[in-house]
Amino acid sequence: MMPPLARGGGGDEGEAWRRWAVLVSTVWIQALTGTNFDFSAYSSALKSSLGISQEALNCLATASDLGKAFGWSSGLALLYMPLHGVLMVSAALGLGAYAAQYCCLIFLNPSSAAGSSFAIPYPLVFFVCLIAGCSICWFNTVCFVLCIRSFSASNRPLALSLSISFNGLSAAFYTLFANAFSPTSPSVYLLLNAVLPLAASILALPAILLCHTQDSNLQSVPRCDRRVFLGLYILAFITGIYLVVFGSFTTTGSAAWVILTGAMVLLALPLIIPACSSCSYVDTHSIDSASPPNHDDPHKPLLASNNLQNESNAVTEKTMEQQVQRTSCGTILDKGRLVVLGEEHSAKRLIGCLDFWLYYTAYFCGATVGLVYSNNLGQIAQSLHQQSQLTMLLAVYSSFSFFGRLLSALPDLLHSWKASFARTGWLAAALVPMPMAFFLMWKQQDGSTLVVGTALIGLSSGFIFAAAVSVTSELFGPNSIGVNHNILITNIPLGSLLYGQIAAMVYDANGQRMTVTDNHTGIIDTMIVCMGMKCYSTTFFVWGCITFLGLVSSMVLFIRTKPAYASTAASRSSCKHLTKFPVNRETP
To answer: Where is the Nodulin-like domain (predicted)?
Structure first.
């Protein structure tokens, strides 16, 4: 047998390099594949080019979100294809879908000077928007699986949060690219949406090929892992600040290229981590690595079970019984509540779980509303005579969404400092700013209020987007996350359709049919245009009420799941105690 010290040699250093290289590759992919966040940058041009109403434009935004309802297909593809194959299929789907939209906007529309006499059928445009949304979901699935396979359970939430955080910066990165290439043409966003995800996939491919085909269960973890994560989060924070400062205004010429180069340098800087990751290694005895891995079972759970867990089951059940007995809120808060975290839920069991529907409602009435707000940001700015500030508003939403995603790692960082708090409680706290923002914009609509409201909505929705993966894994089992999380995000197309339709109906009801000339393309068309506070005032009030409902749902979920988090913390404490002082069961 190889001695413990020998295991901490070059093999572990190679393992560390592989893990960090994979994490950096997911950061690149996420940073350049959030193509749905820049929809508002070209939505007005698309609306004018196709000659459609606000309701029809909302349906196109819904189509992109509806593609996420087919996210389960990425999990199915992983059963038959390697990760890198799924990644390249995702890039091909995005390339085809956005290239078709670009052609629709530039070459094939009869209103365009460069166009032909052939008009693109609206259902076809709807279909390519759906395919574009599906490609985003496939990219996300690849990144989730890479992080889960490459990191132990103790570090996995940190890796997921960091990777997902950069997805929130996509709109800011795309704005910098657009400023450098063609700042006056909205269609450049569609061209970038087609090309940049493919380029990111090709750049990340070598690191992804290094990823193990099975989930990892590290027995030796470098002492400096948490310090490395802290360094990565600090670097990510600096990147976000950079994009807030330099991405909030339109630049042209050499200045735009200098700013874009600086952003790309910051995005590439995490590469120094794999090169400098040779640290001292120790055999860990945490919950996720307290027992040797079962090499005979290739489908070992992601939250690895062990013998110590069996010994702590009695402690868990006793703790839960005592906490439930002390609760006096009746069956509403007690019936069917989760007993332990990480228990696997099949799709059938998930649908019958009350906690899942509370979670679904919190997401549906929270983060999804924030996403619909970002889709309508172009029309909102236009109606309030803030069209010239759209670039800045996109950068604000994108950057604060990014900061919200970074903050989703707080539960894991505080847990390492012995200050743990139920993640569902953080979810409820993250929802507080959203109804405040909508009610604020309902009462007062001006440039400064719009900026503040956009920042609060981006911060809140970003946190929920990033935290949702870990919450789904903890509440309903990590092995089932591929199916369960895609069931959860079916709320996005439903919410996009419902909330977007509310906004579109209010907009069209208060608008007037006008002849509009596009200053950039020269397109002349007749369309409904609404100007003034009346366009979105009612919508903001309705959205505020909906997000308040989401806040209430998240608070009930927190109350119901708090005992499960407490019992799991007690189990972990018991396991660590048993690990430090093992009982010798061998007979003399």
So the answer is: 19-274
Among 212-221, 293-302, 523-532, the minimum mean pLDDT is found in 293-302
Return d(Cα 299, Cα 149) in angstroms, integer.
12
CA distance 73 to 14: 33
Q: How many C-beta neighbours within 10 Å does residue 245 have? A: 12
Q: How far is CA 462 from the centre of its chain?
A: 7
**CA distances (Å), origin 265, targets 186, 260, 285:** 25, 9, 38
66: which 2 tokens? 């509806």
Cβ distance 156 to 472 under 8 Å? no
User: What is the CB-side half-sphere exposure of residue 463 using CA atoms within 13 A?
Assistant: 25
Model confidence over 64-114: pLDDT tens digits? Answer: 877 777 777 887 888 888 888 999 999 999 999 999 888 877 765 544 444
What letter does residue 338 receive in the DSSP assignment? -
Strands (E), 268-412: 281-283
CB 547 within 8 A of CB 280: no
Model confidence, pTM: 0.72
**Digit-coded pLDDT (tens) for 108-120:** 554 444 444 456 7
Q: Could you identify the residue written with the tokens 């069996």?
A: 310
- Alpha carbon 24 to its chain's center: 16
Which H or E run contains 514? strand 512-517
Tell me the Ramachandran region of residue 221: left when phi exceeds 0, alpha when psi lies from -120 to 50, beta otherwise: beta
- Could you say which DSSP state residue 113 is in? T
Q: Give the list of residues 6+ apart from residue 568 with CB closer than 8 angstroms, or none.
A: 316, 340, 341, 342
DSSP state of 516: E
- Can you name the residues that pair with 504 across neighbouring β-strands? none
First to last CA, the chain: 25
Question: Per-residue DSSP letters for 43-109?
Answer: HHHHHHHHT--HHHHHHHHHHHHHGGGGTHHHHHHHTTS-HHHHHHHHHHHHHHHHHHHHHHHHTS-
Neighbours of 112 (CB within 10 A): 18
